[in-house]
UniProtKB/TrEMBL annotation:
It comes from Oryzias melastigma. Residues 74-219 form the Flavodoxin-like domain. Gene3D superfamilies: 3.40.50.360, NADPH-cytochrome p450 Reductase, Chain A, domain 3, Nucleotide-binding domain of ferredoxin-NADP reductase (FNR) module, Translation factors. Binds 1 FMN per monomer. Binds 1 FAD per monomer. It catalyses: 2 oxidized [cytochrome P450] + NADPH = 2 reduced [cytochrome P450] + NADP(+) + H(+). FAD binds at residues 449-452, 467-469, 473, 483-486, 669. The gene is POR. GO terms for biological process: response to hormone. The chain crosses the membrane at residues 20-37. This is NADPH--cytochrome P450 reductase. This enzyme is required for electron transfer from NADP to cytochrome P450 in microsomes. It can also provide electron transfer to heme oxygenase and cytochrome B5. It comes from the Eukaryota. It is found in: Endoplasmic reticulum membrane. Keywords: Endoplasmic reticulum, FAD, Flavoprotein, FMN, Membrane, NADP, Oxidoreductase, Transmembrane, Transmembrane helix. NADP(+) binds at residues 293, 527, 588-589, 594-598, 631.
Amino acid sequence: MEPETHTEPIGDEEPLFSNLDLFLFSLIIGLVVYYFMSRKKPEPIPDFKKLDTPPVSQRETSFIEKMKKTGKNIIVFYGSQTGTAEEFANRLSKDAQRYGMKGMAADPEEYSMGELARMSEIENSLAIFCMATYGEGDPTDNAQDFYDWLQENDDEDLSGLNYTVFALGNKTYEHYNAMGKYVDKRLEELGAKRIFDLGLGDDDSNLEEDFVSWREQFWPAVCEHFGVEASGDELSIRQYELKVHNDLNMNKVFTGEIGRLKSFEVQKPPFDAKNPFLAPVTVNRRLNKAGDRHLMHLELDITGSKIRYESGDHVAVFPTNDSALVNRLGEILGVDLDVVISLNNLDEESNKKHPFPCPTTYRTALTHYLDITNPPRTNVLYELAQYASDPKDQENMRKMASSSPEGKALYQTWVLDSCRNILAILEDMPSLKPPVDHLCELLPRLQARYYSIASSSKVHPNSIHICAVVVEYSTKTGRVNKGVATNWLKNKLVNGHKSTVPMFIRKSQFRLPFKATNPVIMIGPGTGIAPFMGFVQERGWLKEQGKEVGETVLYFGCRHKNEDFIYQEELEEAEKSGVLTQLNVAFSRDQDHKVYVQHLLKKNKEHVWKLIHTDNAHLYVCGDARNMAKDVQTALYEIAEEMEGMTRTQATDYIKKLMTKGRYSQDVWS
């Protein structure tokens, strides 16, 4: 018999997994799935990073790639503070076309200057540097990074670079053309090949003539070096084309903004040269009691702007041209100034799409963006000559733009010495009727004006003070020329219509000593007193804080005590309270013989020498560079000779060492 098998129905069998097992198993599976799912989420991100497109910044900063792409072989870099070096760079880049070459002007701030080592990749390539010097031998703001790069890169090999330098400076300054000279020397040290001598432009004499003379010799040298010939006549080459907008939304039209459209309506910090702050004018008063001149004190309210400044900094303001001059230009050219236009660069690859913010109206361009009051440079006359219907006018305009001795003399007498601006030229040459768009293309940009701040942020954190003299003079043609910025500021009525000033701060090296116990000697006649009002306020504030403050000595000068002794009450009060330990004032015309600040320095030579030589005093000079600053320096040489028995060479070295150590600072202008 087979054994009996006992079977039970399946439904009654014991389950293989308990409910708990199933729950745990499901939980584990769920966690594993979740883990892998959550790990996979970031996977698409690396895919985006694999895009072949180079970063925007890399693409934009390569001037070599841009030159290759556009077939350019000449690049003109400019270090420019007031626009002149940029103007010269544009003229040189346009010149290249006349010699069968292609040029581009470039701002070194926008490019990677290390690429100079790659210039040999471009056949017959040349880099031209138009470098202005600013302040005490410093680079301009836009050339600072380039200057730092030159200083820091000793191992750079620039043997494939052909170059030349034109320097822009002013002989009245201590460090004449320092930046241009440095770039010229440093590029050679790094192996670059100079193909034409350094050009030195002197703004104290005739910068335009210096540039034209250098340029006349420069291009033949370039042609000889590269074996090319000029393509014939100097044709008028337009850089921009006109587009008239008939039905554009006026919300898209610039009305005077420096950078961003509507930036004057919606203000956003940080504020700088491309985004100025609209500061309300809270005080505008005349400082002098009598006399023909108008010396003024203004206060700008910077509440809520987050703008910070220190004593010795500069405030920059963007002025506008006199509406009467603008209207007269429109009248003489027979144009509707309220037409909305754009001037578009014919070179689509250029970083500079327009000569000024576009679209805008001719009225806005001539009011806010273009310089219509300075005598035009020779290239402007040359380009406009074609629009004179009188052959004699055409001939004279072309002659003035040439490098011939008679042409230079005519430009000097008829334009410069007579202070003829573009309006005066159009009035005195009735046959000259240029198209307004070409005129707007040629005129230089209206630049910001800089003033030494006459306040201390320790005392006035929400206010910036300006001290200035209104410029107004008669010319040889019988016209009255008015300074753009000072007359514009003069008319800024407190709480009046449009009583705001577009402004920003530029930092300065003109600083009080780090140690408050160091004595200071401040020398500032006329409006040169401006930064010292801030210094006096700050020394007073330090004393109020219980700090020990060294001697604070001021040498001020003006014409007459009863006319233009500006800030008299404030200064006398500061002396009375002991903030100013000595107030010395030279009234130059209150006696038979002229008395200036340098005479008072000599008179007090024992005290002056003790402060400098024994007490480690810091010296500050502010004002006129051409005469006053030099005369003060000479007086200090003489004091060193008389008090210490030095020779002139020793005295000169002694004063130079004070400058090097930062104990002799100048904030001067010519």
